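thought: fold this chain, then report.
action: predict
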Amino acid sequence: MALAEDAASVLEEFVQNVANLPAEIAHLLEEIQAKDRVVQDCRSTAASRDASIQKFYKTNGARQANPKDEAYSKDILASYDKAQIYQDEKIGLSDRAALLLDRQIKRLDLKIRDLQNEGAIAIDPQLPSLLNNN
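observation:
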C-alpha cells in the first residue's frame, strides 16, 4: 500500500495535477468557439439561400417555377446537416472539459476522504463533496 499522505502533500499533488488544467480547458473552449463560427456560417448560408427563394416567389409569384429552387434547397439542407455535425462536436468537446474538471475534483475528494478515514483531518459534514457518503 502507498505511504500515508498528509493534508499538505495531498494539496501539493492536487495543485500539480491541475496546473495545466486551465490551458487544457482554454484550448477546448477555443475549439468550441471555432466550431461555433462554422455553425454561424452554415446558418448564414441557409438563411441567404432561403431569402433568395422567398424573394423570387414574392417577385414572380408561386406559379412560376424558380430555376434555383432545387439547388438552393439542397444547399439549405446541406448547411443544416453540417451545422448539426459541428454542434455534436461542440457537445463532445464540452463534455470532455467537464470530464477533465470532474476527474480532478473527484480525485481530490477521494484523497480527502482517505485522510478523514485515517484521522489525519477532522470529518466535517459541511465539507462539499462530489462523492456520496458511501
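thought: worth noting. The longest helix spans residues 69-118.
final: C-alpha cells above.
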